[in-house]
Every structure is written in structure tokens, then in C-alpha cells.
Amino acid sequence: MTVGLQKVVDARQLAGAATLIWREGEAQIACVGWRDIEANLPIERDTIFRIASMTKPITSVAALMLVDEGRIALADPISRYAPEFSHMRVLRSAEGPLDEAETDPAERAITFEDLLTHRAGLTYADFHLGPIAQAYRDALGGDIDSDVAPDDWIARLAKLPLIGQPGSAMHYGRSTDLLGLLIARIEGAPLGEVLKRRIFDPLGMKDTSFLVPQEKRDRRAAAHGFDEEGRLIKRLTWGGVVAAERPVVAERPDDMAYESGGAGLWSTIDDYLKFARLFVGDGEVDGVRLLRPETLARMVTNQLTDSQRANSGYLGRKPFAGGRGFGLGVSVVLATDKTDIMGRGGVGSVSWPGAFGGWWQADPNDGSVLIFLAHNMIDLAQMAKGIGFGVWAAIETFQSLACADG
């Protein structure tokens, strides 16, 4: 395992990674490379990574806990809790002008199920070239550490037109961020406090949070990326297509109100294992039940139509066009003859990646969990030039080696 990944590190295509294979109650962990290439600090088992979109399944589980308690229903309109979304407009063309004359009324309300399946008509700025992209950037601030307060963030998003009719298509984007803020509004507490009380404390996830405490910050992985010549460097700011120049591993202000349920968490490989085991334990880990078995079963069941699977994609990929579907916040394997970056598990395996180079998979067929954590920043402009794919190569190497070990 270590030798295969070390080749990618030695080729300077990846700063480093922490990997985990969990089978039959035993964890095999391998750490390669550096958490900071300038300071020569190695990645260790307790290194804290920003897990980006691996946050989404955690937020989705929190929402489904509310469903189990009868606090919300999947079919409930979100306007019941966010009246800002009562009268939405929809772009006639996703890349078209934002003028009201170029929009139509939403045919129905956005539901919680729409948010969980990314069929709400929301998107990410970087996935579009039309006016809606800049409108998202101007309205919502940063993708993760936005300086827009939660209620204002919700109001600003609600003023933007949707890029598709609710329920009609999967558009990967801000749905889980909105879901997280609605959870916080329903619970009457910041999302971080809700997740800590509902998930992190019960499962013993002591190093998972939106804000890394001062005493743990020396364990964080630094951000790495590539210069224009493709050389591995330590990154201090986002740049290019991703966003305006700003720190990527900033000292997040302790009083920052916005917490990204779609991409904001920091975690460790051991902490994420505790969460991922929910999916091989029918919603329970070591006697701690978070979801009813039937709720977890629905979460890991494909919710997309064949047409939605065939036409949904992001970052130039169409991961659901083959043997994969999408449930309530996680990707799920439908046929094993199709393999991709999402993983190579058996039918029913669930997984999801993170933009900083993270990926995980839980396979109920053999009870295994695979986790890969890294901190290589994605720059879409560089990827268009063939720069920055080393982290994906490393993930695929890990997947192949892990499957061979099994």
C-alpha cells in the first residue's frame, strides 16, 4: 500500500496522504508524504484535514435524524422553515441572463428531499459560465468560509433564480449548505453545535469541527497545489477560477457565524471512520444508533431517474451515467462493471469525495470502510491544462490496492 502511494509522492504529484482500510473490526492505516512540504512535517495518523464535500454526508445524516424524530418530512417544502423560498423563479437557460423576463415561476416548492438529492435547482458558481456564476459569487461570499451571516446567506440565495425546476434534474451545488443552515434554524443553534451534539460526541469524533481549536492547529495539513509549470507548492491562497485570492487554511475567526454544511468540516482519518461505519452498521456504531435501519436503507437507495443519472455531472465527469446512482446525500453503486473515481465496491456500496483530495467508501457486502485524506487544492483552470490530477491518480491507486488486499 505505502509503496504504491509513495511513488505518487516521490513524483511530486501529491504532498502526502493518510489512508485507512477497515475490515472485521481491524484498521490498517498508512501515512505517506508531508502535511507541510516547506516545514518537512510528515502526515501522521492524527493529522487534521479539511474534508470539503465529505462534510455533505454528515449534514445529510443530521437532516435524516430530524426525519426519524418527526421534526421534518422529506416531502416538506423548505419554505415552511425558510419563507424566503416561497416564490422562486427558474432560468429558462442555465447559462442565460438573469432578467425576470428570462425566467419562469417554479412549478412546485423545493423540498428537503430535493436538497438531499441535489435536485433543488441550486448549483456552484464554478460549474457555470453564465451570469448565474458571478451572481453566486457576489451574493454568497466564499465557498467555505463565507463572511455572510446565515440568515442573510439564505435570503441572498433565495433571491437568485434556480437553474432548473425543482425535482427535474440533479445539479450538484449549494443544496447541502442550505440544508445545513435550515437544520440550524430548526434546531435553534449553530450547525456546528447541532452536529457535535447529535453526531460527533455520541460517536467519539473528538477532532471533527468547523473550527480547529488553537491547541490542535499544529496538527492541520497545510494546503498544497501546483504552480503554472505544474510544480508542487504550498498554497496560501485560492486563485484562478476557484475564487478570488484569499487564504485556504485561514485562521477562521472564532465568531464567524456561517458554517458550511456542504464543505466546511475538518476531521481525521479515525474520526471519519467512526462516521462511515454507520453505513455498514445499519445506522448504528458500537451501540450508538443515529438512524433507524429503514431510514439508512432509504438514504443508500438510488433516488435518481435513469434520465437524471445519464445527464447529471460535474467537473467534466458524469459519474452516474454508468453503474452508479445517488441516494439521500451519498453516491451508491448499482452495477459493479462500471468503475470511476467514486470507488470500486460491490452493489450497495456508498461513497463521496472531497475537493481537497479526500474520498471514502463503505461496502455493506463485506463490512469494509476505505478512507483517503489529502490536502491538494483543485484549480479548474490548471486541470484544463492537465495539471493537478496526481491526487486522483493516488486515490485510484489506493482503491486498486485496497480491493486487491480484500
Tell me what the structure shows.
29% of the residues lie in helices and 17% in strands. The chain has 406 residues and is α+β, with helices and mostly antiparallel strands. The chain has two domains: 2-55 and 206-405, Beta-lactamase (3-Layer(aba) Sandwich); 72-187, Methane Monooxygenase Hydroxylase, Chain G, domain 1 (Up-down Bundle), CATH 1.20.58. Strands 3-2-1-18-17-16-15-14 form an eight-stranded antiparallel sheet, with helices on both faces. Strand 14 (324-326) and strand 15 (331-333) form a beta hairpin. It is globular and about 60 Å long. The two termini are 12 Å apart.
Which terms would index this structure?
12 helices; 18 strands; Beta-lactamase; alpha+beta; 8-stranded antiparallel β-sheet; 17% strand; Methane Monooxygenase Hydroxylase, Chain G, domain 1; two-stranded antiparallel sheet; single chain; 406 residues; 2 domains
Topology record:
Layout: H1 2-10, E1 16-23, E2 26-36, E3 41-42, E4 49-50, H2 55-68, E5 89-91, E6 103-105, H3 112-117, H4 131-140, H5 150-159, H6 175-187, H7 191-203, E7 224-226, E8 232-234, E9 237-238, E10 246-247, E11 266-267, H8 269-276, E12 284-285, E13 288-289, H9 293-299, H10 306-311, E14 324-326, E15 331-333, E16 350-354, E17 358-363, E18 368-374, H11 380-384, H12 390-405
Antiparallel strand pairs: 1-2, 1-18, 2-3, 4-11, 5-6, 7-8, 9-10, 12-13, 14-15, 15-16, 16-17, 17-18
Helix pairs in contact: 2-6, 2-7
